[in-house]
Structure formats: structure tokens, C-alpha cells
Design brief:
single chain; mainly alpha; 2 helices; elongated
Length: about 70
Amino acid sequence: MIDLKDWYSSKTIWGALISIVASVLHFAGIDLAAADKSQLVDSVVNIAGALGGLLAVYGRVTAKAAIKSAP
């Protein structure tokens, strides 16, 4: 695997986190169907990607130094 991505772009990470939350909810008496989990993973990944992009733009706009280009 050569491609790199941020942790919040990983469906595996979000799927695992949602599975943990679903297990806790099941223990509390609330049950999520598999289709709900899948749709929730896709939604969370999309939201996290959008938030990451917004954070990158915000960071660049509020930065105090310019980006140095390669020689």
C-alpha cells in the first residue's frame, strides 16, 4: 500500500469506531441495522473529509508565514 491518507479519511477507522458505538448502543438497548451502519460510515467519512478541507483552508488563511516553494 503506497497511497497515504489522513486517518479521518479511512472507512476502516470510522467503521471500527461506529461498530464500537453500535455495540455500546446495543448494550444500552438500542439496535442499529447493518445498512444503517454502512450509511453512517459513508456519511461520517464525507463529513470528516469536508471538515478536514475546511480546517486546511482556515489554517492557510490564518497562517502567519508564507509557504516556501521548492528550489
